[in-house]
Amino acid sequence: MRLRLGLALVALLAGLLVGCGGEPSRNAVPAPSTNAGPGEPAPTPTQRSTQAPTGQSDPDPAPTRRCGGVSYGDVLGPKPKLGHAKLRKTRVMPAVCAAYWAPHLDDYFTPQALEIQGDLAYVGGYKWNRSVSRRPCQIAVIDTRTGRTLAFVKKFQAPVYGPTPTYCRHGGGMDMDSHGLWVAELERLWLLDPAKLGKGDPVLRVWRLDKRVRGATVLIDGNRIGFGSYRPASTGKLRWFSVADVLRPGRTLISGPASVERVPVRLQGISSTDKGLWFSSSDAHCASLKAPGHKPVTFVHGAEDVEIRGPDLWTVSEAGVKAYLHGRDPIVPSLLRLDKRAVLAGGAPTCRWL
User: Fold this and answer.
1) What SS3 string covers the chain?
2) What is the average pLDDT across 308-333?
3) Which of 137, 159, 194, 241 has the least C-beta neighbours within 10 A?
4) Could you give all domains of the chain from N- to C-terminal order, each with its CATH number?
């Protein structure tokens, strides 16, 4: 009888131990999910909705570190021939979760703007030229699961000042909502159909910007659209307009903003969450990120536009483009996804222009 009771007790304890060992840890990071099942082809831009979430929710990030940096071999996409086959070491690089090369870097494509829609990254920029007036806006659509380029637009144009078409130049800002993909340059605002990128004429509308409105970067925040200005040695301005007013039939000039606010020096990108606005400032050798309720922290060298998606912080960098590299310099990837919490825990920036 004692022997049977002892054996039953041993079996009970063994079952409890197996049950405890099989339960997942509360701190375990779940595997990332994708919309496509095994064996399904990568999505194309026309398979995606053009409705972009504005005022992204900004929940408290997970208490565990999610990412640990990447090496040169980890970067997805077409590897450029320029630069050194080694990534530039900076204080923020250990927070990188994934990184990508933009296409046509060897042909002077210079990333400036970013929009994230599900698994798709819309990377806007221009083809560099010594003359700013000869820098056509370009857009790459990248599948972030594979790094594959799904579409690339080398130039888009439309009649602006008369019957002769004018092409977009030095595109610096980009955002998306239900109306389409907005692209801002210094003197004009363009509205594109993302389903037609790489498949015909994507231009839906174009507006001229008043001299006081500088489209260095652009942000759609609910029912308003903001244009941020870039100044190398002083704070700039963010001018807000009503989206409905901009879309008014027959309107071709944007002037007289509804409101104006100050933005950081060397503004390169803006993103919006329910906690407020995020600002990216940089040059090719230093960068600063200002988040709502936080002091500025060091960021990716050459960082331009920023996008917040849950615990992730996305950015594009121009520090790895042909025009700004010298010989075999270590290189910075074009597109990066970072752990937002780890970035905000970084130290203060040491940029000389701050």
Assistant:
1) CHHHHHHHHHHHHHHHHHHHHHCCCCCCCCCCCCCCCCCCCCCCHHHCCCCCCCCECCCCCCCCCCCCCCCHHHCECCCCCCCCCCECCCCCHHHEEEEECCCCHHHCEEEEEEEEECCEEEEEEEECCCCHHHCEEEEEEEECCCCCEEEEECCCEEECCCCCEEECECCCEEEEECCEEEEECCCEEEEECHHHCCCCCCEEEEEEECCCCCCCEEEEECCEEEEECCCCCCCEEEEEEEHHHHCCCCCCEECCCCEEEEECCCEEEEEEECCEEEEEEEECCEEEEECCCCCCEECCCCEEEEEEECCEEEEEECCCCHHHCCCCCCECCCEEEEEHHHHHCCCCCCCCCC
2) 91
3) 159
4) 45-344 (2.115.10)
